[in-house]
Amino acid sequence: MELDDRKVKILKAIIKNYLETGEPVGSRTISKYADLKLSSATIRNEMADLEEMGYIVQPHTSAGRIPTDKGYRFYVDDMMLQKENDLVNREQLVADREKELKSMRDFLSQKVDRVEELLQSVAKALAKDTNYATMVSAPQVRGNKLKFVQLSQLETNEILAVIVMEGNVIRNKVITVSEELSQENLLKLNILLNTSLTGLSLQEMNLSIVSKMEIQAGEHMQLVKEVVDAVVETISSEDNLKIYTSGATNIFKYPELSDSSKASELIYALEEKQSLTDFVKLEEDEEQPNSGIQVYIGNEAPVESMKDCSVVTATYELQDGMRGTIGIIGPKRMDYDKVVEKLKTIQTQLDDVFKKT
Amino acid sequence: MELDDRKVKILKAIIKNYLETGEPVGSRTISKYADLKLSSATIRNEMADLEEMGYIVQPHTSAGRIPTDKGYRFYVDDMMLQKENDLVNREQLVADREKELKSMRDFLSQKVDRVEELLQSVAKALAKDTNYATMVSAPQVRGNKLKFVQLSQLETNEILAVIVMEGNVIRNKVITVSEELSQENLLKLNILLNTSLTGLSLQEMNLSIVSKMEIQAGEHMQLVKEVVDAVVETISSEDNLKIYTSGATNIFKYPELSDSSKASELIYALEEKQSLTDFVKLEEDEEQPNSGIQVYIGNEAPVESMKDCSVVTATYELQDGMRGTIGIIGPKRMDYDKVVEKLKTIQTQLDDVFKKT
DNA sequence: TGTTAGCACTCCAATTTGACGAGTGCTAAC
DNA sequence: GTTAGCACTCGTCAAATTGGAGTGCTAACA
What we know:
The structure is a homodimer of 357-residue chains.
Chain A: H1 5-21, H2 27-31, H3 40-52, E1 56-57, E2 66-67, H4 69-85, H5 87-109, H6 115-130, E3 133-137, E4 146-155, E5 158-165, E6 169-176, H7 183-197, H8 207-217, H9 221-236, E7 243-246, H10 260-272, H11 277-285, E8 293-297, E9 309-317, E10 323-331, H12 336-356
Antiparallel strand pairs in A: 1-2, 3-7, 3-10, 4-5, 5-6, 8-9, 9-10
Helix pairs in contact in A: 5-12, 7-8, 8-9
The structure holds a DNA duplex (30 and 30 nucleotides).
């Protein structure tokens, strides 16, 4: 059977209606749509076809139809294609977005110096704006270059290492050392570290460079080892992958998600954050097809507990290919159109903020 | 009417039973208790009295009784008194706790150098252990003394200030300055800042000291102003009050809290965190009566959305009166005894970890 | 051949009903 | 002061009832 023009129209009408109401939609409802003058009986026949083709199902025999994941997928793909091609639309959107951009910019520029807070506010604002749950991952440091290291003495056997990466990503690390260290030697060590490591990415801090440093350090070999280890560990540390979430309780606004066991699992995933890293990883591998926007419907998501949700993600770029991910988690019947637009706005905005920094 | 010995026994039996089952408890259930040989009819009479006195209520006419907030309050106060006085019990507990302390110590000592992670793990472990929701506030920096400041150049017009407080509380701040700065001047500024401000608490960085510094800075007066402002702002910044939460989804384990609107409000409070600061503030004012452990039952809590919960909080000390708060949020019928013990354990443990650092 | 009106049928959701049981309050007797 | 007994209340559960929304199918029509 073929998905002819009329079937497409009906399918879209069904999904659109379902997105709005959340109720199964019957043939009579669709037959009232102005632009296709068909009786409910005809619609019913078409619906039967669409069901056979797997785009819609009935929750039970005498109920209206609701979209399947395949149906949603068709709808979303079509929408994305529309956005890609429709140039007139695009210009309109740019104009529309300009307003948001402005207010957003004012809002963001106030807190540029604290990336953590910035991303948390983005998550929060987006959640409030969309009424869905949100996640924002901090940009991945991997592959980024070291700007400088600064060692200072805290106590006789404690050293504070301040590590600054390109893009002003800053990490602090307290290192407990086994031997005491004079001011003079600390200075030397500082110089040694900076001349040897500055401008290198994690990958480039390989064995030969490190062993060379250790030789230069002479009697403080052991200490250098400890510090370099700490630096490497700090930069590469898996849990650098911070994820900020917000609006978890928004899911209670959607009855199909608020039953206690589903809600519990979902909120757990958002609180625990571990599983959310899967989305970030997926984004990293991705070849950026739709300006970096991805839609996961139901089981397409890499997270088990989100099988009843849809997730829309976007990537933003810091610089040098450092990327972060923004995600919106909502019911399958989320307002994809609006969500995609919001994400595009934030994306542009974040790119902007970070490039300026 | 007076709360005589027998009434107390019956009341305690009712509450204890209700804590275990979560079901309204009837007169027959209590009459089976071995240590008070009374028929259900007698119990019924006593129950009627207890109800009149406001310790228990019936959810509906022909149901068993459940404790009121007043009832819980009596139960908890009695328990705390017991713990205070019962020395034998206490020794037993110390022995019991020793085991936990050991495993806990191993666990904590691994991540001492990252306070943030440490506190987050405490929240997590405690939530897993108790099956309630938990919160842990970072120790308040207010009143703490500055150890040193370190300025480094990031870009021509950007300076990184690393601010270290007593207790190795570290803050980073990127300051955008209006004038360019030579290496030499940066060094001078560093010295000026440290000689003037080191060892001072926020309260002591008053106007006279700052203006004195500004004079010394000569032509860089404007810059000093900016830096000092940044330092002060960073130290005093209200949002230094970080709160870590965990186990929010544990509330779904208790039917009386899992109805969607209650759960939503509760989880929102835990996610938003703003309202949780009220507990921290209350603790600060508190004169530490029961080794710093407080129990809030229902409306006693300063947070509206927790009117159906109980909250148990404890304070831990870092040093110099820097205090943080640990809280456990659960249903009114939580296992107060266990929770108080757990909190005491963690309290000791954290005191320990921080004092050692 | 495609479209439509009509009708019997299905099934859910909401409401009603009745039986059951847990628990109470009261009274009278011990 | 305590207890046994009894009538009464009320919530819970399951079964029965009803109404309505929506379907599939058939026959007639253009």
